[in-house]
Amino acid sequence: MNAYFSALGRDAVIVPCHVAAEDLEEAIMGLRRMRNLDGIIVTVPHKEAVATLCDSLTEEARLVGAVNAIRRHPDGHLKGGQFDGEGFVAGLHKAGHSVAGRRVLMAGAGGAASGIGFALLRHGVAALTIYNRTADRAEALAQRLRDTYPAASISVTGPDPSGHDIVVNATSLGLRQDDPMPIDTQRLVPPMVAAEVVMQPEVTPFLTAAAQRGCATHGGYPMLAEQVALLAQFIAGEAD
Ligand code: NDP
After folding, report:
1. Where would you tag: which of 42, 128, 164, 233 has the fewest CB atoms within 10 A of its CB?
2. What range(s) does the Shikimate dehydrogenase substrate binding N-terminal domain occupy (predicted)?
3. Which string of b and e fits 20-59 if b means at least 16 CB within 10 Å?
């Protein structure tokens, strides 16, 4: 983001702050009083908790139930926004993988999956299937998505990707080399596209397995890269 500010000639800088979960409320209260603070980027594990500490939310943040950017108004009012899903879809599109009309299997039902699910439906996927280790969480996310998109095809399934065009790992599996696969990679076949949210390692075991089976792969970094401008514009009050 600092490179982005610098390229635009903006008098702004972003610095990392480490806040423990039990201190979040006090930290946010203190940030309200900082008059030269335009906003905050929020990451794990605070995205959901911080949504309850904002004074207002964008529609996307309200639907997803999580915030990853906060705009601080001059009077201290904090408005929460959510751009993870839009960043993910923008990254796929930039790589030439359109989501409209495609059948998508998404592994995961946490914060990242929630944002991605809403964004995929907003961008017109033909069907969204959710697989998650904890099936209740997958059902709960599917229901929230159906409440907003009642005409959409949204279902909960097992780990078999057969019959899908795009398979998304929206879990945290892959951060460690000995993690299990997020879905049954033996059933990946071309021309399926395998897409990741995990950024480190850049090539996860899921992407390696997909490539070995001849599928196109898409890493986790573009999801973040495509958000930089969105986050900066939101914090600057130039976009909602
Ligand atoms: P959450 O903790 O909200 O969700 C974690 C998800 O992973 C859940 O679906 C959970 O399943 C699943 N999971 C975790 N461990 C296991 C396991 N051992 N076996 C099966 N499933 C498992 O995390 P987030 O959604 O916030 O983040 C997920 C990932 O997305 C992280 O790696 C994060 O770094 C990445 N991310 C990347 C971004 C980017 O810009 N590239 C942006 C945001 C996030 P269950 O419900 O059963 O626990």
Report:
1. 233
2. 2-70
3. eeeebeebbeebbeeeeebbbbbeeebbbebbebbeebbe
| Torsion angles phi and psi, residue 84, rounded to 5 | -60, -50
Asked whether residue 109 falls in the same domain as residue 218, the answer is yes
* Residue 230 resides in a domain: no
For residue 238, the model assigns a pLDDT of 87
For residue 58, the CA-to-ligand 1 centroid distance in Å is: 23
Q: According to the model, what pLDDT value does residue 239 have?
A: 80
**CATH code for position 76:** 3.40.50.10860
How many other CB atoms sit within 10 Å of the CB of residue 105? 26
Distance (Å) from CA 83 to ligand 1 centroid: 16
Residues of the chain short of pLDDT 50, as ranges, are: none
Instruction: Decide whether any atom of ligand 1 lies within 6 Å of the 68 Cβ.
Output: no
Ligand 1 site, residue 108, Cβ cutoff 6 A: yes
Per-residue pLDDT at 65: 94
Task: Give catalytic residues, as residue numbers.
Answer: 47
Ligand 1 centroid–CA 183 distance in Å is 13
The Cα 109–Cα 218 span in angstroms is 20
pLDDT in tens, 149-196: 999 999 999 999 999 999 999 999 999 989 999 999 999 999 999 999
Are 102 and 168 in a shared domain?
yes
Same domain? For 108 and 187 the reply is yes
Q: Are residues 56 and 147 in the same domain?
A: no
Same-domain pairing of 89 and 8? no
Side chain identity, residue 103: R
The response to whether residue 146 sits with its C-beta less than 6 Å from ligand 1 reads no
- Is 197's C-beta closer than 6 angstroms to any atom of ligand 1? yes
**56 φ, ψ (degrees, to nearest 5):** -150, 160
Residues 11, 57 share a domain: yes
pLDDT, tens only, 9-21: 999 999 999 999 9
Give the position, in ligand 1's atom list, of the atom nearest the Cα of 112. 25
